[in-house]
Amino acid sequence: MSIRKLNMKFLLTICLLLISTPSTVSAQQSKKPPAPLTRAQRTEAERRLSDMGYWTGAVDGLFDSATRSAVIAFQKWEGRPITGQLTVTELEAILTSASPKAREVGYAHVEVDLHRQVLLLVNENDGVRVLPISSGTGKSFMDDGQMSIAYTPRGRFVVYDKTVGWEKPPFGSMYYPNYISGGVAIHGYRSVPNQPASHGCIRIPMFAARELSKLMQLGTIVLVYDQVSFVSGKSWAENPTLRQAATVNSASSEYTYRRGEAKTKPRSVVIKKTRSKIIQAGYLK
After folding, report:
1. Cα–Cα distance between 157 and 87 in angstroms, integer?
2. What is the residue extent of each domain of the chain?
3. pTM for the full predicted model
């Protein structure tokens, strides 16, 4: 009897192994990464992203830093998981999505959406070009012995000064910076994380910094907003005198944004910069 029981247990074990093996193999197969997109599919994704306004670089089917940047901007705008990867699922989402829309239309300007962490270059026909950004962390840090806050100011600004090429202030090199408020600039940076990471400036990908700077001429209106704050720039767009006055004020005043009521009066100063009178005069004369 004991031998029969042993044989039965052995046969039962064999049957269980045979039953479970296909499901185990199936589970292992399901863990395999999806097949990469073909070049034709990548080209299709780039073309669609570009048509919608995302800044892709060349539409050539090569997944380079510009393509990855466009995918990240798309994922940020659509509220999708930010992976920077171009998969079949992302391709399907790209092909079925609509173009981003600016918060305000009817005139050329720049918008910085701090909630989505994207920048929109808006033209007079309401078309957009979209880039991912990284803004101020909102955290405190020491600046010249004083407690400062890495804060990106919200509001309505103008580009009042800029630098061609590299500038090397204390907190890291900036590529083609465009100053909008005191030391706060929109500039190229080698690292543009998916979340706020700067001392207050608005970082953009390096590949687009030079062209964006050319398109953002002195006097360009820049609207920086989040989910709860927005200031219209239409009055400046309709009245050049107001915009010119705003440029003069930005160029002549120090950065005075302050936050909180702490005794230390934490500042949102990022960089103290000697302004270029030559560039300013070129716009204001």
Report:
1. 38
2. 39-95, 109-284
3. 0.79
